[in-house]
Amino acid sequence: MNFELVLMLSITLLPIIISPGPANILYAASGSAFGIKKTIPFWLATNFTSIFQTLAVGFGLESIIQIYPNIIIYIKYIGIIFLLYLSYKFFNMSISSQKEIKPLTFKDGVIIEFFNAKYLLIPAIMFSQFYNPSEGYMQIILLTLLLVSLTLVTSMIWIIGGNTLTKFLKSEKIQKRQSFLFGTLLFLTAIWLSFE
Predict the structure, then answer these.
(1) Which residues contact 8 (CB under 8 A, 6 or more apart)?
(2) In the predicted model, what is the mean pLDDT of the chain?
(3) pLDDT at site 175
(4) What pTM was estimated for this model as a whole?
């Protein structure tokens, strides 16, 4: 894999990866509500899970979806239900003391990423544009590692951004409004995904 390919892949995927979506909103919300350190398990879980998702796409998930096209619909709606649950948690933070709400866990990260059907588009785009079958399976692994490197960095940017925002908004009243905003964004994202 040469530098030009890495650069083109990064330019192509970066806008998709860093744009607001379910996981990115959760990174910002968790970074804001619980800080960077307590968000790390969630961050690691989503990125760890995305490795398996990317490899699955690279090694043929698409053929399974072609045989069983409804599977993607089930994944999508289970993901929407989980987003609504997380939205509920953030709405609770807007009316409760933040000490009562626990940070998102490694398990939450695995669940949200596993059912994030929108994420599957990213490796599908990547492999359709940049995978050369003549280079063999090693290229699937290298492309996966490159994608995960991008998601690790961009998701940490969302976490740091959420955490930084909280430092500027120190009053509990404003932080509760911020939790309400993040809950609303998650709710609207779930609604938007249900009509997609």
Answers:
(1) 130
(2) 82
(3) 66
(4) 0.75
